[in-house]
Amino acid sequence: MIHDLGKILYLNGKDIDGTSLKTQWGIVGDTFILGCKIPDSVIYPEFNKLSKYHKYTDCGIYSKNCGLQKVKCSFGHDEYLYRLLKHNNINLPEEAYYIIRYHSLYLWHYNDEYKYLENEKDKEMKKWVKLFQKYDLYTKSEKKINEFEIKNYYENLINKYFPKKILY
């Protein structure tokens, strides 16, 4: 329900940094880990040589098996929403936070890259992120949804996890 809500970042965005309604390269797209070599399985790998991380080792500035919580990913709508929810102490299961934060890190959960950075928690959480993917991209349907039929379901979820709370 909320995994792509971070795209509201465009409301105060600017063209120059790719976060406006018109120019969204800084909001959407696949994420990757900064500070280490970008794997060749990334989309458009021919541009890897333009990255300052191109000559880094696989682990780069990180120690082996340090865990995803200790690395920095490229910033986009996922990281924005993750930080917004954490900052507001929204009570979501840890699996939900992993899904929100890492569902666009396809190199990790789809291409099986960055295994050398994973810790045991990441290995456990990866299955939830992978499970979520069948509900994310390329799962849109042409079927018309009756808003009134699903309204109660989603209102109950919103009230459970966001009880009359304003997010800052």
Q: What's the gyration radius in Å?
A: 17 Å
Broad shape: globular
From the helix content, strand content and strand pairing, which structural class follows?
A: mainly alpha
Mean pLDDT: 88
Low-pLDDT sequence parts: none
What is the rounded distance between the termini? Answer: 19 Å
Tally of individual domains = 1
Q: Which strand-content bin applies to the residues? A: under 5%
Strand order in space, largest sheet:
1-2
Order of helices and strands: EEHHHHH
Estimate the helix proportion, in percent. Answer: 25-40%
The major sheet is characterized as: 2 strands, antiparallel
- What's the count of strands? 2
> Helical stretch count?
5
Characterization of the model:
The chain has 168 residues and is an all-alpha fold. The protein has one domain (5-141). Helices cover 32% and strands 2% of the residues. It has helices at residues 77-87, 94-102, 106-109, 120-133, 147-161, and strands at residues 33-34, 72-73. It has a two-stranded antiparallel ribbon with strand order 1-2. The longest helix is centred in the C-terminal third of the chain and has 15 residues, at 147-161. The radius of gyration is 17 Å and the shape is globular. 20% of the residues are buried. The model has no long low-confidence stretch (mean pLDDT 88).
